[in-house]
Design goal:
By secondary structure, the protein is α/β, with parallel strands linked by helices. The protein is built from 13 helices and 13 strands. Helix 4 crosses helix 5.
C-alpha cells in the first residue's frame, strides 16, 4: 500500500514537471517556471509572443536586482518580431492586476539604455513595464537593420500594448506609454489613435519629422536646400536598389559649404566619431558623452553604427503627431530641460495639444541628462502622473 502511494506521488510529480516544462499558452511557447508566480509570468494570451529568462544581460545602467526582468518577444501587425525586457514590481504578486507602461527610445538607442532605466524605475514604483527595441534596431527583427520608419515605429508601440495588455496580471484598461527623445513622437502618435493607451508621457522629446525634414542642427533648410536633400535621397535609392543592400547615411542630412548634401563616407563610418573632436559644440558633446561614454552599447546605432542612407524618406513622407489635439481627453505629460537644445519640440507639442496636458522643464538639465541622470529626471512626478491616470 505504501509502495503504491509512493508510486502515485512520483507519477504526479513527473506529470507536473513535464507539464511545466512544455508550457504553451494561446500559441506562445515559454520556458519552464520555477514557482507559482513564475508560472503566471510565463502565461500569455497573445499569439506569436514569448517570455523567457533574461540571459547575457548587457544593460548599461545600474540594475536593481530586486526587480525581476524577463526577455520578451512579440510580433507587430507587419509580422516583425519586436524584442523587449519585461520588468516586474518588487514583491510581484501574480494574482494582482497591475497597471502597465510601455517604453521605447531614444531614436537610435536600445532597450539596454535609457528606456530600460525608465522602465526599471517605474517598476520599482509598482508598475509592470516593458522596454523594447523598435523594428530594425537592437535585437528586434526585420529583413534589414539600422532603418527607421515613423509608421512602423509607431506600430511597435501598438504591438507592445497588445503584448502587455494580454498578460494575465495586467489590467488592459490601465495601460500607458512613454517615448524618450525621438521615440516620443511615435508614442504620442500611437496614443492619439489607440484609445487603449490611457495616458502618454515623453522625455527630451524630439519631433523627428521636424528634425529630419526641416533642418540640420537647428538651422532650417531653405527650399533650395531641401530640394538638394531630396536629390541626394533619390541618388542613394538608385544606388541601394542597384546593389540590393542598404548604404550608410545620416538621418539628418547636412548641406556642405559647396551646397551639396554630405555623404557618409569611409570604412566603418559611424554616426558619432570614436573620439570627440576638439572644440566640439555642446550638443555633439552631450550626445557623445552618453552614447560613446557612460552608456555605450554595441547594438545601439548611436553608439556603434549609422542609419541607412534612405532612412529620411519615411520622415519626408509622413507627419508624426499631426492630430495631437485628438489625444484629449486622455492626458499628456512632456518633460524637457531648461538647457536642452530640444526644448522647443516639447513646447511646440504642448501648445498644440488640448487639456489635460502638463509641461515639466527641469532646471539645469540638458537633452541627454534626461536619459539617465537620476537627480535631473522627475521620476516622482512621472509616478504621480501615471498613478493618477492609471492607478496601481
Amino acid at each position: 500500500m505504501k509502495k503504491t502511494s509512493r508510486t502515485r506521488k512520483l507519477m504526479k510529480s513527473v506529470v507536473l514537471s513535464l507539464a511545466l516544462a512544455a508550457v504553451s499558452f494561446a500559441g506562445a511557447a515559454f520556458a519552464a517556471p520555477a514557482d507559482a508566480n513564475a508560472a503566471a509570468v510565463m502565461a500569455s494570451q497573445m499569439k506569436n509572443s514569448s517570455i523567457t529568462e533574461l540571459t547575457n544581460d548587457s544593460r548599461v545602467f545600474k540594475v536593481d536586482k530586486k526587480i525581476q526582468t524577463k526577455m520578451v518577444r512579440f510580433q507587430n501587425r507587419y509580422g516583425i518580431e519586436v524584442a523587449g525586457h519585461l520588468y516586474l514590481p518588487e514583491h510581484f504578486d501574480a494574482n494582482k492586476k497591475y497597471s502597465a507602461i510601455v517604453f521605447s527610445g531614444p531614436f537610435g538607442a536600445v532597450k539596454e539604455q535609457s528606456s530600460g532605466l525608465y522602465a526599471q524605475e517605474m517598476a520599482k514604483r509598482g508598475f509592470v513595464t516593458v522596454a523594447f527595441d523598435c523594428s530594425f534596431t537592437g535585437e528586434s527583427g526585420g529583413n534589414v537593420h539600422d532603418v527607421a520608419s515613423p509608421d512602423i515605429f509607431t506600430e511597435d508601440f501598438h504591438a507592445a500594448v497588445d503584448f502587455v495588455g494580454l498578460l494575465p496580471f495586467v489590467d488592459k484598461e490601465r495601460v500607458g506609454a512613454m517615448g524618450i527623445c525621438g521615440l516620443g513622437g511615435m508614442a504620442v502618435t500611437a496614443a492619439i489613435n489607440d484609445v487603449r493607451i490611457k495616458a502618454v508621457a515623453t522625455s527630451a522629446l524630439y519631433n523627428m519629422n521636424d528634425s529630419i525634414r526641416n533642418h540640420y542642427k537647428g538651422d532650417y533648410y531653405t527650399p533650395a536646400q531641401r530640394e538638394t536633400v531630396k536629390g541626394y535621397l533619390a541618388e542613394m535609392r538608385w544606388k541601394e536598389a542597384e546593389l540590393g543592400k542598404t548604404l550608410p547615411g545620416y538621418h539628418e542630412v547636412a548641406i556642405g559649404a559647396d551646397g551639396k548634401a554630405v555623404h557618409a563616407t569611409g570604412e566603418g563610418v559611424t554616426l558619432l566619431p570614436n573620439k570627440l573632436p576638439e572644440g566640439a559644440d555642446p550638443v555633439t558633446t552631450d550626445f557623445f558623452n552618453y552614447y560613446k561614454g557612460r552608456a555605450f552599447h554595441p547594438r545601439a546605432i548611436n553608439s556603434n553604427g549609422i542609419w541607412s542612407s534612405t532612412t529620411p524618406y519615411g520622415f519626408f513622407d509622413f507627419d508624426l503627431m499631426a492630430h495631437v489635439e485628438e489625444l484629449s481627453p486622455r492626458p499628456l505629460l512632456l518633460i524637457t530641460g531648461d538647457k536642452a537644445h530640444s526644448r522647443y519640440h516639447s513646447e511646440n507639442v504642448y501648445e498644440r495639444a488640448k487639456e489635460p496636458k502638463e509641461l515639466i522643464v527641469m532646471p539645469g538639465a540638458t537633452h541627454c541628462d534626461l536619459y539617465d541622470i537620476y537627480e535631473k529626471i522627475p521620476f516622482e512626478r512621472l509616478d504621480g502622473f501615471f498613478t493618477k491616470h492609471l492607478g496601481k
